[in-house]
Amino acid sequence: MPPVDVDSPPVESQIRNLILSGHVGFDSLPDQLVSKSVQNGFVFNIMCIGETGLGKSTLMDSLFNTNFESSPSPHTLPTVKLKAHTYELQESNVRLKLTICDTVGYGDQINKEDSFKAVVDYIDAQFENYLQEELKIKRSLAYYHDSRIHVCLYFICPTGHGLKSIDLVCMKKLDQKVNIIPIIAKADTISKTELQKFKSKIMAELKNNGVQIYEFPEDDETVSEINSTMNSHIPFAVVGSTDFVKVGNKMTRARQYPWGTVQVENESHCDFVKLREMLIRTNMEDMREKTHCKHYELYRKKQLEQMGFSDVDADNKPTSFQQIFETKRSNHLQELQQKEDEMRQMFVVRVKEKEAELKDAEKELHGKFDKLKKDHTEEKKKIDESRKKLEDEIVEFNRRKAQYSQMSSHHTLTLGKSKKK
Ligand SMILES: Nc1nc2c(ncn2[C@@H]2O[C@H](COP(=O)(O)OP(=O)(O)OP(=O)(O)O)[C@@H](O)[C@H]2O)c(=O)[nH]1
Ligand SMILES: [Mg+2]
After folding, report:
1. What DSSP element (H or E) covers 66?
2. For the chain, how long is the longest CA-to-CA vector?
3. 127 CB contacts (<8 Å, ≥6 apart)?
4. Where are the alpha helices (DSSP H) in 307-320?
């Protein structure tokens, strides 16, 4: 890496403003960008978190004016599962690859303490996949299907009593990982006066518990006014429907009750239009950007720091990835060398111990052998002595035997002579 000249002035102060004397053409850059983006198509990933049967699928159908053909989830699952489905949608010449990720079985367990875990794991897994692709030598991010969640619609049960603890715990766990938009589901079940109180209560509870929800950006002046107005309407109270009713001479999405009709797209009936405006028409790009620049960046930072990487060295001086890698490599090699030396030393000690053990055993064997030899010699000596004694006895016996036989023959002779007399 070339050394950085710390004394040279910042690049900005060296830049001069020049006036062009004619048309050059780079004013077409925004058009080039639009054309390229339209050609590539867009990706948007929505996560719907909410208890079973809260109207998640119906709202998705209503938002994108289509039928995603989702089937109802069972209420009996032992754990929460995440199910993602991807669809290709097209409006005029703009293609949108939309992924809807549903929490199946959310809030159905008796112990709801860990309900958020599956959601957190899913979001992290998508970040991890992207990070792994980014870290590859041969990356193909241009063709990579980005599955990172851009927005999480959190469906609040229309109880009118505020948030449940599962809502607070889950949103708190997610607020640094994803853009959360809380919405009151099935808002047609709450009266107008109750709804305002309910909304204020929810916002107060979120604030008191330090839950950071997604705020529509107010820094872009083209949308700052509408966004700031919309921020004051959060959480949006929404109604969804798959049924159409004729209002005037137009078929509109609505829910029909014996006492009247709730029109999904009627702003005096519910906040559906506000949600659609904010989610799809005004801030989709901001959510995609925040996901990449804020939430993913945070995940990436944590992961790289966990691996031991940092932008500054031990003395808080700027350092490069390569330098850290080199340091880590040399530290690792050093550690390896140290381990090898330790193992070698241990091996030598063990060999010496074994050698001493063997020598002791050999000495013991020698001792045993000498004793055996000595015992053997003594035994042999004893046997030799016994043998010699026995031989002497045999000789003596033979001598006596011979003597006896001589004596007995002499006797016989003497007896014979005396008879003749
Ligand atoms: N009152 C009222 N009912 C609704 C609303 N939206 C959906 N429903 C009804 O609620 C029931 C469940 O709707 P779904 O959209 O399947 O709910 P879900 O959250 O996707 O359910 P699961 O996927 O099974 O968890 C259906 O009978 C819908 O007609 C709404 O805004 N208000
Ligand atoms: Mg559903």
Report:
1. none
2. 187
3. 148, 177, 295, 296, 299, 300
4. none
Q: Could you tell me the strand order of the sheet in which 81-91 lies?
A: 81-91, 94-104, 42-49, 151-156, 180-184, 236-237
The first and second tokens of residue 59, run together, are: 């709202």
The helix or strand, by DSSP H or E, that contains position 89, with its residue range, turns out to be strand 81-91
Ligand 1 centroid, distance to 57 Cα (angstroms): 7
Ligand 1 mutation pick, 48, 56, 58, 103, max ligand atoms within 8 A of CB: 58
Residues of the chain with pLDDT under 50: 1, 421
CA 415 to chain centre: 129
pLDDT value, residue 415:
65
Neighbours of 292 (CB within 10 A): 15
pLDDT for the residue 327 = 84
Q: How far is CA 306 from the centre of its chain?
A: 13
For residue 158 and ligand 1, the question of a CB distance below 6 A is answered with no
- Ligand 1 atom at minimum distance from 241 CA: 6
Q: Report pLDDT for 1.
A: 47
Helices 115-135 and 297-306: crossing angle in degrees, nearest 10, is 80
Q: Residue 148 in contact with residue 296, Cβ under 8 Å?
A: yes
Task: Please tell me the distance between residue 185's alpha carbon and the centre of ligand 2 in angstroms.
Answer: 13
Question: Is the C-beta atom of 253 inside 6 A of ligand 1?
Answer: no
How many CB atoms neighbour CB 138 within 10 A? 4
Atom of ligand 1 lying closest to residue 73 CA: 24
pLDDT digits (tens, 9 = 90+) for 320-329: 878 888 888 8
30 in contact with ligand 1, CB cutoff 6 A: no
Give yes or no for residue 77 CB within 6 A of ligand 1. no
CA distance 236 to 158: 12
Quickly count helices (H) and strands (E) in the chain.
11, 9
